[in-house]
Design a protein that fits this description.
The complex is a heterodimer of chains A (172) and B (291). Chain A is mainly alpha-helical and 172 residues long. Chain A folds into two domains: 80 residues, Alpha-helical ferredoxin (Fumarate Reductase Iron-sulfur Protein, Chain B, domain 2, Orthogonal Bundle); 80 residues, no CATH class. Chain A contains eleven helices and no strands. In chain A, α7 packs antiparallel against α8 and α7 crosses α11. The radius of gyration of chain A is 19 Å and the shape is globular. The mean pLDDT of chain A is 92. In chain B, α7 links the parallel β5 and β6. Chain B is an alpha/beta fold. Chain B has 13 helices and eight strands. In chain B, α2 packs across α3, α3 packs across α4 and α3 packs across α5. The two termini of chain B are 29 Å apart. The radius of gyration of chain B is 19 Å and the shape is globular. Chain B has two domains: 120 residues, Up-down Bundle (Glutathione S-transferase Yfyf (Class Pi), Chain A, domain 2); 150 residues, Rossmann fold, CATH 3.40.50. Classes of the chains: A mainly alpha (172), B alpha/beta (291). The interface between A and B is large, with 67 and 69 residues.
Chain lengths: 172, 291
């Protein structure tokens, strides 16, 4: 992660947590995540709900006086959680992330309807009922196309990933 | 004036009206858009969460195509696409390691990218290339008396900050002032988060954020909220009934893509701007614009 080493100069001022629109829902706020991470409590950091509640609004990143890219740090922690299978069981955030990337590889683009359908079936059965009125309006306005369009070069995305996986394996 | 154009995935579904109105509005301004050949998803926030180098490489496939297709800057309409593509440029410039890895991966599909394609948000192009005065001169229906809450969202000027302030953006304010609208320049939510994908993964959190946004717009007396991102638009518009249920409120605020309202001021027909695709009816906004 470019610039990742800056985490060493965090002075624990808490601007990140104070700027975070969802910190009130988190096990630990971003400031505590950095403290725990530096203290070597990687396991607890990666298992926290914090990383899955980051919306990528970048408020912390632009305000951090030490220039730490906190949003990028959250991405790094999500990647670790996925890599070592430390995601919360039945978690909605990790599922959404995975289905999104799957859709991109399958079609070359994210097919929103397929993504929502898959998410509904596996994580939130209640969604169609909660969202019925608006869903119907979106559908009749043509904003929910049922069929995905595949791009011509969709296989290129698999090849890009395969290449990078091979490079990573070589480096180990 | 001509640009390469990256619509983004939402522009084919929930955000269709953004794409349609962008093309119509740019047509009125005499700006030519050439859609990027066989573009792929930028990867958005999700791809960063799964694999880092892949996310840059997947985004860079688009930039490689753009570089080959023409010398024009790449015009992007979605905030998330804009930030993802611009961030890829920046990280490739900051790190030779990223630059080399991305080009290695692109090489596997016979592509290459030198890192120099300018990625531009459509608002940046309107305000800084076309110019608000030039746009103002083309107005046929001034937006006199229309009170606009400019909603920029997060990944508009954060974290890049290339063309506007990360905390208190003003580009869209200036644009609508030039069109004669009354802009709520101190709209409290202008650069706050709508919750994004969290609307599906932790609904109560995202509803609270949207409630604050809607309340800020209502307190400011907004006739319409204008957005520059399809995810913001979807959450702030489509979830008003859910917000009302959760907070006992009664919001029924029209929400438009900014391109739709600019298009109206430039004399485009509401149908051409896909205004009928909005969930909260915008008829009263259209009717209130002096002929």
């Amino acid at each position: 992660m470019p610039g990742g080493e800056k985490i060493r100069i965090c002075q624990q001022c808490g601007t990140c947590t104070g700027s975070c629109p969802t910190s009130y829902l988190m096990d630990w706020g971003p400031r505590e995540i950095i403290a725990a991470f530096r203290a070597g409590m990687i396991d607890r950091v990666v298992k926290s709900n914090t990383i899955w509640l980051c919306t990528s609004c970048y408020s912390c990143t632009v305000r951090c006086p030490a220039g730490i890219k906190i949003t990028d740090l959250m991405y790094e922690l999500k990647r670790l959680a996925i890599k070592y299978d430390l995601v919360p069981k039945g978690g909605k955030g990790p599922a959404m992330t995975k289905y999104f990337v799957d859709s991109v590889h399958k079609h070359g683009r994210n097919h929103e309807v397929e993504l929502m359908a898959k998410f509904m079936l596996t994580r939130d059965w209640g969604l169609p009922f909660k969202f019925a009125g608006t869903g119907l309006k979106l559908f009749t306005a043509g904003r929910l196309p049922l069929f995905a369009k595949n791009i011509k070069g969709k296989d290129e995305l698999d090849k890009i990933s395969a290449y990078l996986d091979a490079q990573e394996a070589k480096a180990l | 004036m001509r640009y390469l154009y990256y619509p983004g995935c939402s522009a084919e579904a929930t955000g269709k009206a953004y794409d349609i109105s962008t093309r119509a509005m740019m047509g009125k301004l005499g700006v030519e858009l050439a859609e990027l050949d066989d573009w792929n998803c930028c990867g958005a926030t999700s791809y960063f969460s799964v694999r880092e180098l892949d996310s840059f490489a997947v985004a860079a496939r688009n930039l490689a195509i753009a570089q080959k297709q023409g010398d024009e800057d790449l015009c992007v309409i979605c905030n998330a696409c804009y930030t993802t593509l611009a961030k890829t440029n920046r990280y490739m410039a900051e790190s030779t390691e990223v630059h080399e890895a991305v080009n290695g991966a692109l090489g596997a599909v016979d592509r290459a990218y030198d890192g120099t394609k300018a990625v531009r948000h459509i608002m940046d192009i309107l305000v800084n290339d076309v110019g608000v005065d030039a746009i103002g001169e083309k107005v046929t229906r001034r937006l006199t008396g229309i009170k606009v809450a400019p909603y920029y969202g997060c990944q508009y000027s954060r974290p890049m900050g290339d063309f506007d302030d990360p905390e208190f953006p003003t580009t869209m304010d200036r644009l609508f002032e030039a069109l004669g609208a009354e802009v709520i320049t101190d709209f409290s939510g202008k650069a706050k988060c709508c919750g994004g994908m969290m609307m599906l993964t932790k609904e109560e959190g995202a509803l609270r954020l949207c409630h604050e946004l809607l309340k800020g717009a209502q307190d400011g007396g907004a006739d319409v909220i204008v957005c520059a991102c399809p995810l913001c638009e979807m959450n702030v518009e489509g979830y008003q009934p859910r917000v009302n249920k959760a907070f006992g409120t009664n919001f029924d605020i029209p929400v438009m893509y900014f391109t739709q309202l600019v298009g109206l001021a430039l004399g485009a027909d509401p149908k051409q701007l896909a205004i009928d695709k909005q969930i909260v009816s915008c008829d009263r906004v259209v009717a209130a614009i002096p002929a």
